[in-house]
Design goal:
Keywords: FAD, Flavoprotein, Nucleotide-binding, Oxidoreductase, Proline metabolism. This protein has twelve helices and eight strands. It has about 300 residues and is of the alpha/beta class. Strands 1-2-3-4-5-6-7-8 form an eight-stranded parallel β-barrel, surrounded by eight helices. The radius of gyration is 18 Å and the shape is globular. The structure holds dihydroflavine-adenine dinucleotide.
Length: about 300
């Protein structure tokens, strides 16, 4: 049943009609459970609260699969604005983005142009930019662009997904760049040809790539709410004398607040991924696909409104 629901919500996450209806009819339908607010002002308030509780943030202006150049321009300018606001308000925050929001599906020239403008702002305001990893079809291009940009800008990170067979070799491939990488299980609908179909394999591969990257001496972000992965990381870093400055736990806004607080109390670095904006539909459907219990949260949110 869980598998069927996962497929169902992943199918919805890609539905352009539902996505545009959701944007048009406002910030409702339980979006606030996983999304910090419709605009930067709301998001900044949330960041301040998290910072005061000892947690850093990565801020994501929601958006993906943009097909119009004007839209990509808008998203680029919003991300630059976000970087400036982080600096101006002295917030402990980085930014995350999806390159399909900056024009990846329109042309490589455009996305490189937009990314360079964002990364210039990142360097100027000392804000790290992480390129989220999207679906498999865009993985190779995302990594190639990451490599190009990483030769030009230091404050740049990306994400690798442990459900993909290719990820172990991608960890080796990116090693020369001393990259800041967030490791996650992966949130998209992928075929068995490219991704492990069984959760146990995805979990084991996540442990494997986290350990590899830590052993290479690079900064490692563990993007997971899974107790087993968190325990594994604690134990591995302890046994291998890996300093706490070399890694951090990252969790999504709206998920496992108590666990986050516990980790902070234990002296671990914790960063919360805070999405904001009106283009929340696909992001929220992927959260529902991950955990059927999230459906209940969203329904509760609906009733409250
Ligand atoms: P999973 O969903 O497999 O859950 C494992 C176990 O954790 C559950 O069985 C339960 O025990 C526990 N658990 C999970 N949620 C819980 C809750 N709310 N309450 C209590 N227990 C809970 N994906 C992607 O493809 N590209 C990307 O760029 C990113 N970026 C990203 C950033 C960050 C900061 C995070 C945390 C995640 C992503 N993801 C992502 C999403 C990621 O790929 C994945 O889909 C989700 O994190 C879900 O996987 P988990 O590792 O959290 O555990």
């Amino acid at each position: 049943m869980e598998k069927v629901m996962r497929q169902f919500f992943l199918f919805l996450s890609n539905n352009q009609l539902l996505k545009s209806l959701a944007m048009k009819y406002g910030f409702k339908f339980g979006a606030s459970r996983f999304v910090a607010g419709p605009d930067l002002a709301h998001a900044a308030e949330n960041i301040r609260t998290l910072n005061n509780r000892g947690m850093a943030v990565t801020l994501d202006h929601l958006g993906e699969y943009v097909t119009e150049e004007s839209e990509a321009e808008e998203r680029t300018l919003e991300t630059i604005k976000t970087i400036k606001v982080i600096d101006k308000l002295n917030l402990d925050s980085q930014v995350s983005l999806k390159m399909t929001s900056m024009g990846l599906d329109i042309s490589e020239k455009l996305v490189l142009h937009n990314m360079r403008r964002i990364l210039e702002a990142g360097e100027k305001h000392q804000v790290l930019v992480t390129i989220d990893m999207e679906d498999y079809a865009r993985c190779e291009q995302t990594l190639t662009i990451f490599e190009t940009l990483k030769r030009e800008y230091d404050l740049l990170g990306t994400v690798l997904q442990s459900y993909l067979y290719r990820t172990v070799s991608d960890v080796e491939r990116l090693d020369p760049y001393n990259p800041n990488i967030r490791f996650v299980k992966g949130a998209y609908k992928e075929s068995e040809e490219v991704a492990y179909p069984n959760k146990t394999d995805v979990d084991e591969n996540l442990k494997k790539v986290i350990a590899m990257h830590l052993d290479h001496g690079h900064f490692t972000a563990i993007g997971s709410h899974d107790d087993a992965i968190i325990e594994f990381t604690k134990q591995y870093t302890d046994e291998h004398n890996i300093p706490r400055e070399q890694f951090e736990f990252q969790m999504l806004y709206g998920m496992r607040a108590e666990l986050r607080e516990e980790l902070v109390k234990e002296g671990y670095n914790v960063r919360v991924y805070v999405p904001y904006g009106r283009d929340w539909f696909g992001y929220n459907m992927r959260r529902l696909a991950e955990r059927p219990a999230n459906v209940a949260f969203v329904l509760k949110g609906l009733v409250k409104k």
